[in-house]
Amino acid sequence: MPRPSCRPQIVEAAVSEFHRLGYHGCSVDTITKAAGVPKGSFYNHFSGKDELAAEVVGLYQSRSAFREYEPAGDESPLTELRGRFRAVAERHRDRDFARGCLLANLGAELGGSVPRVRDAVDEAWRGWTARVADLVTRAVAAGELPGGVRPEAYARFLLDAFEGAVTRAKVERSMTPLDDFFDHAFGLVSAGGTRA
C-alpha cells in the first residue's frame, strides 16, 4: 500500500515555523521535527525550502482574515473595507501580534534574494491589492470616497500603510500603530471628512 503523503503536515508546520523563526532561521530539520515526520520525507515532496516557502505564502494568504470576513448584508463598500482590515488587525492581536505579518516578514527578510518566494509574496500582494481596489472603486461610486481617488493607487497605499502599522505594532508590542492606521487611513479620506 502507498504511504500517506506527509506534505500537508510539512506545510502546516512550516507556516508556524517560518512565522516564528523566519526563512533563514528555520531549517528543513526544524520544520520536519515540528511536523513530526522524518527529515528524508521532505525531499519526497519539495525540491527545497524555497518551494515550500512559496506554498506557505499561498496557504497563509488563502486563510487571511481579509478574505474570510463576512460583511453584513447592508454594509456600504467603505464600511466593508474597514471591517476587512479590522478583522486582519484583530487576528494579529489574538494570535500574538508580536510575530507580525508572515508576508511582510518574508518580504523584508528576503527581498529579492530568493526569487521563488519573492514571486509568491508579490503575487499575494497583487491579489490583495486587487480586492482592496475593487472595494475602493465601489466606495467611490457610492460617494463614500472622493471622485478623484485612484483605486489602484489608494489600494496600494492602504496595504502599505497597514503593513507598516503591523510591523511597528510588532516592534512596539502595542496596538497603537494599528489604531492610528484606522483613524487616519479611513477617518481622513471619507467624503466630507466624516469617519467611515
From TrEMBL:
Q: Which UniProt keywords apply?
A: DNA-binding, Transcription, Transcription regulation
Q: Which Gene3D superfamilies match?
A: Tetracycline Repressor, domain 2
Return the InterPro entries for the record.
Answer: Homeodomain-like_sf, HTH_TetR, Tet_transcr_reg_TetR-rel_C_sf, TetR_C
Domain HTH tetR-type residue range list: 4-64
Where's the DNA-binding part? 27-46
Q: Record's Pfam families?
A: TetR_C_13, TetR_N
Q: What is this protein called?
A: TetR family transcriptional regulator C-terminal domain-containing protein
Show the taxonomic lineage. Answer: Bacteria, Bacillati, Actinomycetota, Actinomycetes, Nakamurellales
